[in-house]
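## Example record

The block below lists the input lines for one assembly entry, exactly as stored, with component labels intact.
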Amino acid sequence: MIYTVGEMAKKLNVAPSTLRYYDKEGLLPFVERSGGGIRMFKDADFEYLAVIECLKQAGMVIKDIKVFIDWCIEGDSTIEQRLNFVDNQRRAVIKQIEQMQQTLKMLEYKHWYYETAKKAGTCSVHSDMNEEAVPQEFRDVREKVKGLPCVK
Amino acid sequence: MIYTVGEMAKKLNVAPSTLRYYDKEGLLPFVERSGGGIRMFKDADFEYLAVIECLKQAGMVIKDIKVFIDWCIEGDSTIEQRLNFVDNQRRAVIKQIEQMQQTLKMLEYKHWYYETAKKAGTCSVHSDMNEEAVPQEFRDVREKVKGLPCVK
DNA sequence: TATTGACTTAAAGTCAACTTCAAGTTGTAT
DNA sequence: ATACAACTTGAAGTTGACTTTAAGTCAATA
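Predicted structure tokens for the full assembly:
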């Protein structure tokens, strides 16, 4: 099965211009062209672009992705670099997940905070709430944001 | 304890210009000034900025953070909006964590891929590797990237 | 074969989030 | 009192990741 840039873009739920941009930046050296110069995406390219999407969403910038692809093209002489690269990326993602989980904890606290405030009709229920009324899992977060100006 | 913009920036490990930018964008309405106009950050502002950092790293844009802060200032009449906002944000973060875990899985596969290739001195060990030699946890990822042009 | 919608490129435009610059002010240390 | 590092502002510049525009080409259909 062969797809034009528009068809592949629809499959990936991105704008066609995004794929053209990736191509221009050297991220798609494997995409072949028709005699008239039209890009012909294959099914494997869908998975390939999904991997790129994955790396991007992990916080990798396009230039770094290009570096990695260039190493892949260069062949076995760059295995060490690629191992290194993947390792750094892996560590960065682990760190990011940890941070995200911190953020989630805070948002869950805030969720409880505003649910409670909503029931009471005012945020001031929280200022004279005794420790026991605060669910166990929120006590440490609450302690941290206690002194904040307003955005608890 | 009181800090200047430079001192607080150092504590937060950001550039002073970043804090001035946040201030200009309305993210720091609680930071007071000296008679001469110099920002005076307090200890509570450190926690406050840490929360902002958290929201930012969760993918929230500065304008949205400002909207939230403005709601906080407005008071109890905006509790419902804030609950809604926090809830959406929470859902988005959960989704992001799930995606990150997918990415991590892929990077762990690649880590194994290049470790193995390094030992063998070539990536071609993978093309004629039988299923049993692939660790259980990598088999599904491997299947997905099997047909990829080069960047497996 | 003519039309038409989707493709092509290069170049310019946009947006968020900063950063840098220029010109001037503050406040501490000698 | 004077120097000097760090502060202030507004405005312009930068970077990354696209998006839009303009001018033209391709290829499937009537």
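Chain A has a mean pLDDT of 93. Residues 15, 17-18, 21, 25, 34-38, 56, 61-63 of chain A lie near DNA strand D (CB under 10 Å from a C1').
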